[in-house]
């Protein structure tokens, strides 16, 4: 079960004297020593309907337009494993691989004889 705290009217009135209100400072005759001139902070925003404020014509007129979707970084492929990437970097690699395979076939043919 939860615990309940009941506040009396006198308790709330003494809080105003102790901490002050939004308009008047705290009462220095109270037991609070430090901050006798303490004033409760005010809200920064009077109207908390942020969605309506942001979408208002006045705000939208001065806001920069939204940027387009972000581009995803391209995945770097390994040219030692990916033949197409190797050929982009080194077009001669195709000819070289063909020559190496022809040489390998000749060596195998000579071995069989």
Count of β-strands? 0
* Average pLDDT for all residues: 82
Distance between the termini: 95 Å
Percent strand equals: under 5%
Biggest sheet overview: none
**What is the number of helical segments per DSSP (H or I, 4+ residues)?**
5
Poorly predicted parts:
none
> What order do the helices and strands follow?
HHHHH
CA radius of gyration is 40 Å
State the assembly state of the protein chains: single chain
Shape: rod-shaped
Provide a descriptive summary of the structure in words.
This protein has 2 domains: 9-62, no CATH class; 83-112, no CATH class. The chain is 44% helix and 0% strand. It contains 5 helices and no strands. The chain is rod-shaped and about 115 Å long.
Please outline the helices and strands.
Blueprint: H1 9-19, H2 50-54, H3 57-62, H4 83-89, H5 92-112
Characteristic terms for this protein:
113 residues; single chain; 5 helices; 44% helix; 2 domains; mainly alpha
In brief:
Helices cover 44% and strands 0% of the residues. With 113 residues, the protein is mainly α.
């Amino acid at each position: 079960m939860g615990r309940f705290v009941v506040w009396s009217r006198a308790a709330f009135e003494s809080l105003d004297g102790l901490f002050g209100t939004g308009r008047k400072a705290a009462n220095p005759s109270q037991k609070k020593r430090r901050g006798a001139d303490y004033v409760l902070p005010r809200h920064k925003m009077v109207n908390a309907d942020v969605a309506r404020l942001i979408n208002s014509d006045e705000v939208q007129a001065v806001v920069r337009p939204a940027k387009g979707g972000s581009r995803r970084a391209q995945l770097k492929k390994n040219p030692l494993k990916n033949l197409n990437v190797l050929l982009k970097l080194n077009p001669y690699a195709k000819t070289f691989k063909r020559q190496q395979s022809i040489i390998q076939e000749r060596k195998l043919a000579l071995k069989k004889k």
